[in-house]
Design goal:
Length: about 500
């Protein structure tokens, strides 16, 4: 059985449209076809019900004629045969056979003959036995307002058929005979129009739900490609996206995989080029530094060594920005308070004006109990620890750059650390002139400086804040700049607290 199902699935797959447009067209055609079938079935029910009601109205005239001549015993057998030709089941019971069981055990519903027909002596009474339900007062009023016996039975037969319930009519004649009439087709149980309409709506909703699921399944390859771009957009070492689905999805996945492969090759070439540049430039730099030591003029020697230090600093900044040193460091859980405090303490030990304010100790209030207690606040005496999963080396480099900038342009740095259950918040303030608002989004760009020159005396290489932004982005954090009222720049770094 499993092999047959697999063969059938493979057979259908051979004829499945390969393009997205073709598959959407097939879904639209199938959905339209199924809804059209449901509509046709509902329409057939309405037409068939109207026809059944019309035939039931005509049946009333036949009942009237058969009942009229039923008093003559000679025609009893003929009447039964004629009734059978029209699909009726008619039984004529003698006057002394009043105990014959009817088809249903529910109490009969009396239908009053019009007053103008009561004096004719025909018939005495008419009762309707239903399997369930009853004729409404409006239906009875329509039946009892007829002008002659033929219309009376025609309206009665039509209203029974309109109800769609299985029924049996009991007619009591002046001679005492009872005539029992039923019709298995016209007076039978049928679904009500409201039920049919409800079933039609349920069917349409079910079809729409199924095709919504199929449409979602059709979009699956595009969702997988989108997820891969979002989750692994900057990770060229992740596995390639599976190429499946319609032709458009396969082409997009193939193009994405090809693009990632080319980027991977470019990054590899860049890494090898950086390694070569680092090797080729550091070797002559070291030779120049050794030769500079033999310069007898002290002022000239210091100038040359300072230029060499500047060149090494520029080279290190460029290599750090272009390299993948951030991804090479593995994440580990550390006490972030100790990491940041150690950076500030190093500057303080060198006499640099860097102040660190750690997170406030955790506080709690006592709870009232039968043994006492109150609402007095309490706090822990020990230093608060903040555990954070991160790359501590790269974060240390980023905060060092920010503190260096604060000291260079603002002459002092004040570092505040706070944390919530979800976020670690670091704020660095200085006393400098700040950064104009129109430049705050641009200072994170490589080599961009508010002061346009590249002179080391007026600033750095323009890569310090770019490196900071790269590190914070690698930790899924955010960095904001804000000029404080009066004087100074405030740098706000928020990191998600991953433990």
């Amino acid at each position: 059985m499993a092999d047959m199902f697999a063969d059938f699935s493979n057979y259908l797959r051979r004829y499945k449209p390969r393009t997205l447009g073709g598959r959407i067209f097939i879904l639209m055609m199938l959905g339209g076809l199924i809804i059209a079938v449901l509509s046709a079935m509902a329409s057939y029910y309405v037409i068939e019900r109207d026809g059944r009601i019309g035939r039931a109205y005509t049946l009333g005239f036949t009942i009237r004629e058969l009942v009229r001549i039923a008093e003559n015993p000679e025609f009893e057998e003929n009447i039964i045969d004629i009734a059978a030709r029209d699909g009726m089941v008619m039984r004529i019971l003698p006057p002394d056979d009043l105990g014959t069981l009817l088809l249903f055990s529910r109490p009969a519903q009396h239908i009053a003959m019009p007053a103008r027909l009561a004096n004719t002596g025909w018939p005495i009474s008419v009762k309707v036995h239903f399997e369930r339900g009853r004729l409404s007062s409006e239906q009875r009023a329509t039946i009892e307002a007829t002008e002659n016996p033929s219309l009376f039975f025609a309206e009665l037969s039509r209203e029974i058929a309109r109800l769609g319930l299985e029924a049996q009519v009991e007619i009591l004649m002046p001679s005492g005979k009872r005539i029992l009439v039923q019709h298995d087709e016209l007076w039978a149980s049928y679904s009500s129009p409201s039920l049919v309409f409800l079933m039609f709506l349920i069917g349409v909703v079910a079809v729409l739900a199924v095709f919504a699921a199929l449409a979602d399944l059709l979009a699956g390859p595009f969702k997988r490609l989108t997820g891969a771009i979002i989750n692994y957009g900057d990770d060229v070492s992740s596995p390639p996206v599976e190429e499946r689905g319609p032709t458009e999805a396969r082409s997009m996945a193939a193009a994405y995989n090809d693009l990632r492969e080319r980027i991977s090759r470019m990054l590899g070439d860049r890494t090898r080029m950086l390694a070569a540049i680092s090797h080729d430039l550091r070797t002559p730099s070291t030779r120049l530094r050794l030769r500079a030591e033999f310069i007898e003029n002290d002022e000239l020697r210091e100038t040359v060594l300072r230029d060499l230090d500047e060149m090494d600093s520029l080279l290190n900044d460029a290599l750090d920005f272009l390299g993948d040193w951030i991804q090479k460091e593995e994440e580990r859980t550390v006490d972030f308070v100790s990491v940041l405090e150690a950076i500030c303490d190093d500057y303080a030990d060198l006499g640099r004006p860097v102040a660190f304010n750690g997170p406030q100790p955790l506080q709690f209030s006592s709870v009232h109990t039968v043994f006492g207690g109150g609402d007095e606040p309490h706090s822990f005496d020990s230093k608060r620890s903040i555990r954070l999963s991160c790359r501590p080396g790269t974060l240390k480099r980023a905060f060092t750059n920010l503190i260096e900038n604060a000291l260079k342009y603002g002459h002092r740095a004040k570092v505040d650390l706070e944390a919530t259950a979800d976020t670690v918040l670091v704020t660095i303030r200085d006393d400098g002139p700040g950064i104009p608002v129109e430049h705050q989004d641009k200072v994170f760009l490589p080599f961009y400086r508010v002061e346009g020159s590249r002179a080391r005396t007026t600033g750095g290489s323009g890569l310090g804040l770019s490196i900071v932004k790269t590190v914070i982005d690698a930790h899924d954090g955010q960095i904001q700049l804000r000029n404080m009222p009066g004087k100074g720049l405030e740098v706000i770094i928020s990191l998600p607290r991953k433990v």
